[in-house]
Queue: 2 jobs
Job 1
Amino acid sequence: MEDAKQSLNNLFKILTRNKAGFIGLIIFTVFLIIAIFASFIAPYDPMAMNFDDNGAIKRLQPPSSSHLLGTTWMGRDVFSQMIMGSRIAMVVGILSAICVVFIGTNIGLIAGYYGGKVDNVIMRLVDIIYGIPFLPFALILVAVLGPGIKNIILAIVLITWRNSSRVIRSQVLTLKNRTFIEAARLTGASDFRILYKHIAPNVLPLSLVYVALSMASAIMTEASLSFLGFGDPTLSSWGKILYSCYSSQAMFKAWWWMLPPGIAITLLVLSGFLMSKAFEEVANPKLRER
Amino acid sequence: MRSMKYILKRILQMILTLFILVTILFFLFRVVPGDPVSMYIDSGLDKESQELLLKQYGLDKPLLEQYIIYIKSMLRGDFGNSFQYGKPAITVIGERFWNTLVLMITSLAISLCIGVFGGALLAWKRGTKIDTVGTILVLAVRCAPVFWTGMLFLSIFAFKLKLLPLGGMNTPGTNFVSLYDKFFSADFLKHLILPALTASLYSAATPLLVMRSSMLEVVKEDFIELVRAKGVKEKKILYKHAMRNALLPVITVFAVQAGFAIGGSVLIETVFRWPGMGREIVLAVSARDYPLAQTAFFLIGTMTALFNLIADVLYAYLDPRVVIN
């Protein structure tokens, strides 16, 4: 427990000491708070059609006091859709990032530490996965397994663990011949202990780089799949807002419908990118001068 | 000799990768919920005709045998018939392939120029307003969804200013006598501008940032100081001495970027209704036209593998230490 508190503290310090990291952290936190309290903030049901006093659908209304970001072609409230959409982006981003980096780090640790045949087999597998065009594959997988947030996360995790595993592995390769590992081995520490007690903490900053990057890329992938029409049909994600905007052919008339989702995705992806830069400087101190 | 061996090894690896891709695809499409009969064959048919059709398609055979037949025919270049178009899937995709390639090569060439010169400029002006504003702009472009940037460009340049067409590859109704005509007519080039610009801005961002930091390394080195001491003009130092030495990491990152760009063509082509492989794969998957989707995916995979191969070989050529390891 004390350990966890300590490392959380360190994490916070890394992000607040670095200008880019700090900006990233602030953007991320704002979206996180919005996502947590989404159901209290959103004034309307994002999927409900809104009608005016005469019973007509409020189609493509520009922003007003009752609809802060106007309405869609189907008379839905864009502001509420945006607020609820932050939840999906957060869930997809955080869950995928944790899974991706957990798998990638462990595979990198094992391949790098054991070397030889184990390493060879794992690295050939990574090579093969690098050969898979990500977005087309994700698209087919989601279409085959059925659109839904779980399958989108599955598609992301199945492919993107490759990035972190390769980099973590090469880091482990340089670590495992250091004297402190040698010393641990001489005192009779088990492989498991050496791997997770001595090597893992040293690759942690690098893993964090990939947590931030994977979050950004997962959010982008979800948005892309939703834009292509393979999003979760029951949820209003940012990508899906853009999909309905594009396919309704109203995007030229309704800037209030087209701009907010794009800006939100850009900001959240940017926050992941900026935080990754801060972690990268810890993982690779040579970069600090730039 | 050593590098020949390396390249050969990488080619074999590429073939293996493609083979595994094809295998994954085969089994992925066979686990689709619902049996092929209900999906591909009209349910209004009576039992006997259904079975006849199953036999015709070879779907009555065991899975493993189907797989072997599938691999064999693929090696002969037979990818099956598209359900939608009623002609060989490879013919349908063949046309789309060139459309994708033209768009991709154009945008990659533009993005390499933007990346190299933009990155050099920002590094040269480091610490100034140009550097700060430029870096923020590049980051924003890198983080914005590419399909959204496309939508923005369409709204501004096509809808508001009416400068360029709203999408597609040529004005409907135009006929072309030859392939040359198709790709070099003014009409085609007009349609090409927006998708190529969107794609190139997006894929320029990463090489640009790499070029910038690589340049920052190079300008610190002694030989630049030496050249400057000799009285060489600043512009010449930048173009002739600094940029040349900063290019190596950019080239490698760019080749990787090229691999990503093929996957990204799915988005660009959908936004701009560009009749390429990427858009076709989306349409085919939506219409459950699996032979067509498989073929498109296979070709996209081959292109990705080729780009990866070029990247590795190029890297090995530029940095010989790779081969030895």
Job 2
Amino acid sequence: MNRLVFINIIRFVVLVLIQVLIMDKINFYGFLNPYVYLLFILLLPFETPGWVLLLLSFALGLTVDLFSGTLGLHAASSVFAGFMRPFIIKLVGEKPEYDITTQPKLQQMGLKWFIAYALLMIFAHQLFLNMLDVFSFDEFWQTMLRVIISSLFTFLFIMLFEYIFAPRKEKK
Amino acid sequence: MRNILVFIIRYHFLLLFLLLESFSITLLVNSTYYQSSAILKAGSRVTGRFYTSISNATEYFKLHTTNEHLAQENALLRQMKGVSFLRNDTASFWVNDTLYKQQYKYIVAKVVLNTVGKRNNYIMLDKGSRSGIQKDMAVITSKGIVGTVVNVSENFSWVMSMLNKHTRISGKILKNGQMGTIVWNGVDHLYGTLTDIPAHVKITRGDTIVSSGFSYIFPAGIMIGTITDYRVEQGEHFYTIPFKFSVDFNALQYVYVVRNLMKEEQESLEKSTERLKDE
């Protein structure tokens, strides 16, 4: 249990740093903003109580906000992603009941499950974030293009991280 | 009472979500209110230090371009100096003549954080209220306008970049003095849009757009960009004029924060004039 908490704290810090130091500098005509910090919410254990999930999402979003000067934007969207997580997990299939140690990871839940789970979560987060940022339907298609491109690249980076940081023994 | 408790426990997930969500959105929407700016101010104590140390480490890689910009600006300033002018009259001339009164002061600050890829971009500077920076001051470089200060802590400040949905800066075409509004449509950090220029005005590609000086924030005549194209949308009476920013927002390093020494006087005059109108 303690090990799990420790891993999650490290993950929180590392992902926020990667986000504000590397990902926020990526720029492609303003359409490409990968938000990899979402991986923290994706990888929280299945057993995380709802209220902990929401509070952690809020803390994560607020931290990213403080580093980018957009107070409330990332907090709102990652709380939304945290809220959607139980429903999305229900939709793509829950974990097998007999196994307590299973976590929502690529190596444990399989490629197909993880792709569906990650894509839905990323899309929900990106849609909410971009709609809130623009706050009007004037530039609807431009915003949608932004959502789709950013979602795809967030997905690519998240898959990449999952493969890079996969523990050896679980690979098989 | 017991029913309320049961209700709260049963729907705590949804209720907590609504609570956190409404709190976040309130922060976002009321970003000018005291609470939000106080949170951002407290946060920038940590994030500011963090970004300063990162930028201290990375600025060596950009020294070449920084030097080049400084040399160019020095050359320009030297041209303006008294010794560069030929005196063709014999009347004596004092620089501290009462005809001239200093209106703007410039504070140098370093950019420690800057983005260009988002819909709303913000810039963090390594100086704050201790160096005399206040909210609503203009931020420029030798090349042109960068943005406006929106939040200040003791040692750091947040600047709303021109690359922001909320940017509304009054600009004019230098050649014919036509006034318009500068907006950014959120696609490309190299190009902005000038609007509100009436469709009967003649416009040429390559014309310069400068700040109009009709605000208390920006001094008049500061470069904004050059016109690249113009068109009148169907059913409109005004031009849509895309232009290229004179500032490369992707390569900002040192900026000047402009302090208008007569802002209070101008504002109090405006207020008393409005009071006259009401009466």
